[in-house]
Specification:
Elements: E1 3-8, E2 16-17, E3 36-40, H1 50-60, E4 64-66, H2 72-81, E5 90-94, E6 97-98, E7 102-103, H3 116-121, E8 136-140, H4 148-157, E9 165-168, E10 172-175, E11 182-193, H5 200-210, H6 218-223, E12 234-247, H7 260-268, H8 271-280, E13 288-294, E14 297-312, E15 334-335
Parallel strand pairs: 2-10, 3-4, 3-5, 5-8, 8-9
Antiparallel strand pairs: 1-12, 6-7, 9-15, 10-11, 11-14, 12-14, 13-14
């Protein structure tokens, strides 16, 4: 076997959205004297309206929007060129994200996704203007707040002579909800091989085993695919594909992969593939595996579906309203 390349991505993004008209449960006041900017770093695909609804939310706050910057390098270049001779108070960066593989935002054009390892390996331009110690950089990317290593790399990327404060939440971001234009949700996960689910009862049993201390009617919630009553949990799912390409000296050197066990054995023989699967933390049996052969090149593709239970975060003083996602709330946002 001469070489190996691998790729891990998302077929359907993980941050949640709905298409209903929104009304904020607790209105937010915006200080128009502040210099703030919001980067909408992606475009919606299919029925998911995450970026569209995020744009609407921040327009309601009267904030400046930038929609043509789609890389971390581009954000830095834009800040250096558009600072108006004073630092920004807040910089918001909206990107799909996932607790397992970082952000969908690319480091550079045609580059890798933003992860702790990709930032370590990539040389970015220096932040020369627009950022100081009072600047708050807020990443609206699902689960990022639980990835301390990535938050540290992002802080370093935006630090020159002065370091800003980085904010992100460990919870899911929901834009365009039934009761608020933006809120956060606690999330519980179970997985199954894509297109091979054994049904709601089987998945509910998985949640029971994985989260025995959580008081949720898993079966009813799995069947609830959109927001119902205020604060009521509901389900959402997305796919996570993985792919590895193996090249052999001769076509005759290729192994015969007749079963799933044979496929998994080949993947686990490679250190890079094993490391990638370990970082994902998703059981191999929860992937659907397929093989493609072309000449002396063998491609192995796996795909798992993540079934998520989303529980909206409620206001701490009572169940009458959703908790507004203010970055100053240490129970909702991590800061570094």
């Amino acid at each position: 076997m001469r070489g190996l390349s691998w790729f891990v991505g998302f077929l359907l993004v993980s941050c949640q959205t709905t298409t209903r008209q929104q009304v904020s449960a607790i209105p937010e006041t915006t200080d128009v004297s502040k210099q703030s900017v919001v980067f909408i770093t992606g475009h919606d695909e299919g029925e998911n309206r995450y970026y569209t609804n995020a744009r609407k939310h921040f327009q309601q706050q009267g904030m400046r929007l930038v929609a043509k910057v789609s890389t971390l390098e581009g954000v830095i270049h834009w800040l250096n060129a558009n600072h108006n001779y004073k630092p920004y108070d807040e910089v918001h960066i909206v990107s799909h994200g996932n607790p397992w593989r970082g952000m969908s935002l690319r480091v550079k054009k045609e580059g890798d996704r933003v992860t702790a390892s990709s930032l370590k390996e990539t040389k970015l331009p220096k932040v020369e203007q627009g950022i100081d110690t009072q600047t708050k950089i807020v990443f609206h990317s699902c689960g990022l707040g639980s990835n301390v290593a990535l938050m540290k790399q992002l802080k370093q990327a935006f630090t020159s002579t002065e370091a800003p404060t980085i904010y992100s939440s460990a919870y899911f971001n929901v834009f365009g909800g039934k009761y608020a234009s933006h809120y956060l949700a606690e999330t519980y996960y179970a997985f199954y091989p894509t297109a091979q689910s054994q049904g709601p009862l089987h998945m509910a049993a998985q949640f029971d085993v994985k989260y025995p201390e959580v008081d949720i009617d898993w079966l009813a919630t799995i069947k609830r695919r959109e927001e119902g009553k205020l604060g009521e949990p509901y389900s959402y799912k997305f796919n996570i594909p993985v792919s590895w390409t193996f090249q052999f000296e001769e076509e005759s050197d290729m192994p015969t992969l007749e079963t799933t066990d044979h496929i998994v054995d080949l993947v686990l023989e490679d250190e890079a593939a094993t490391t990638a699967l370990f970082e994902l933390g998703i059981p191999l049996e929860d992937f659907r595996w397929r093989v493609k052969q072309k000449g002396n090149t063998l491609t192995i593709e796996g795909k798992t579906t993540a079934l998520c239970i989303l529980v909206p975060m409620m206001h701490r003083d009572g169940p009458w309203a959703l908790a507004f996602p203010r970055i100053e709330n240490k129970a909702l946002y991590q800061r570094l």
